[in-house]
Design brief:
The structure is a single chain. The protein contains three helices and two strands. Helix 1 runs antiparallel to helix 3. By secondary structure, the protein is mainly α. The protein has a two-stranded antiparallel sheet with strand order 1-2. It has one domain. Structural component of flagellum, the bacterial motility apparatus. Part of the rod structure of flagellar basal body. The basal body constitutes a major portion of the flagellar organelle and consists of a number of rings mounted on a central rod. It is found in: Bacterial flagellum basal body.
């Protein structure tokens, strides 16, 4: 019997993704004036995530094996276009916007995770406050 549903695991992956994205955005902001710095961007790696989901639901040993089982649910993309004369491609306005969007996403996931654990706590206590 599983105590935690797959939705909690999905929320956990989302929180990990948000943390990695926050780290990349912070790194970009810190290097806004560094010559020839190329911004980093974290993108979800849906192909591998989908492949692992299929593999996890394999119901028979005779089914086809899947290859490329990486633990990464997201990947880093190094964009190479340039905005400034010194070769740096960090746009501080875009980075700050991405940071705000990521914070909203993170807090939404945390709120949902908290609700899941609150429900579990309610069940454990038998509905008694």
């Amino acid at each position: 019997m599983k105590i935690f549903s797959t939705s909690i695991q999905a929320l956990e992956k989302g929180i990990q993704y948000s943390g990695a994205k926050h780290k990349a955005i912070s790194h970009n902001i810190a290097n806004v004036d560094t010559p020839n710095f190329k911004r980093k961007e974290i993108k979800p790696n849906f192909g591998e995530t989908y492949q692992r989901a299929l593999e996890a639901n394999k119901t028979d040993d005779r089914h086809r094996e899947f290859s490329g089982s990486s633990n990464k649910a997201f990947k880093m993309d190094n964009t190479s276009y340039s905005y400034s004369h010194n070769g740096n491609n960090v746009d501080i306005d875009k980075e700050m916007s991405d940071l705000a969007e990521n914070q909203i996403y993170y807090y939404t996931l945390i709120d949902q995770m908290s609700g899941k654990f609150q429900s579990l706590q309610n069940v454990i206590k038998g509905g008694r406050g």
